[in-house]
Amino acid sequence: MDRERTKGDARAVEDPIAAIFDLAESVDRQTPKIRKMLRYVRWFVSVWLLLDFFLILLSAAAFGGSPGLALLLFVPIVILLLAVRSVSGSTGRLVLLIFVLIFGGLQVLTTGGLVFLGAVLVALFILGFSILELMRDLRSFFDYFALRHRVIQRVRQADPVVYVPDGKDAVQRILSYLGATSSDVRGIMATPGAVATPALLTGKSGLTYSFDAYVRRDPSTLWRFTNLGAAGFAVFVKGFERAPTLADLQALKTAIEDVAGATKIPPARILVLWRSKADESVTPDVYEFLTKESARVKIRGSTFVCSLELAIERDDGTYDFIPVVVEPVMSGTGTPTAA
Prior knowledge:
By secondary structure, the protein is an alpha+beta fold.
C-alpha cells in the first residue's frame, strides 16, 4: 500500500482538482499489486472449484448417492451461472438464480446420506463460481482504469494546439496526421493494399457503405483460431462538407458496426472530417453523441468499443478534436482494447 497516503487525514483537502489527480496517480501505482492479487485469488478459487467438483462426485459415490446424476447436474448449473453474467435485468438474473438453486438442491440430493455435507459443497461451488465472475469484472475495471489514466495523462501532457499537416485534401492531411502520431498506423500505411481512398465496404447486412479512407491491419492467424495474439484494427475516415448532424453520426456508427461485423476487424479510430468556417460549431446533440456514444462490435466473444472522433479543420490551420483519442487506445501490437 501507499503508506504515506494512508497516514494522512483523508478528510483534509486543499485543492480538489489537484487532489483528484494525486488520488488517481496513487491508485495507478497500486494497480500492478492489485492485478497480481486478483490473479492469485482467481487461481485459488479456480483450484477450489476443481477440488469441490471432485469432492461432490466422491461424496455421492461414497455415501450411496448417484455420482452420474450429480455429474449431469453440473451442466445446467454452470450454464445458468454463465447466463447470469449476460443478463442485464435484475428480474432475469433473479429467475436464473432461482433455477440455479433448484438444480443445486437436486444435486444435494444426489450426494447420498450426508445431505449436510452435500449442501455445503454445492453451496461453496455456486459461491466460488460467482466469486470468480466478480473477480473477472474487477480485473476488467482495473485494466480500464489503468488505460484511462494513461490516456488522460498523455492528453494533459500533449501540446493543446494541433497543426494540420500538408496534403492535397482533408483526407490526405488527416492520414498524414495519423501517421505522424501513431506508430501502428504509420507502419500499416506503408504496407501495399492496406489503405483504400476512397473505399466501398460491404457490411454484414449486405449493404454497401462509402468511406473517404479505410486503413486496416488483418488479425493474426493465432487470433483467428484461438482469440490470442493481435486482433488487427481498422481506421475509418468519413468527410462532410457541412457540420455533421446527429442523424449523420448515427448512420455512420451503424455503418461501421455493420462493416466490422462482416470483416471481423475491430475499429481503432473513427474520424469524422469537417472543415469549418469562422466560428462554426456543432449542435449540442451532436456534441453529446460524440462524447457519450461509441461504436460497439462483438467479435469472437470480445466486445470492442471505439469513439467517433470529429476532426474539425479550422481556418487558422489547426485541428479541433471532439473527443480527443490518443495512441494508448491501441496496444503495441495494434490491437484495440476490448471492453
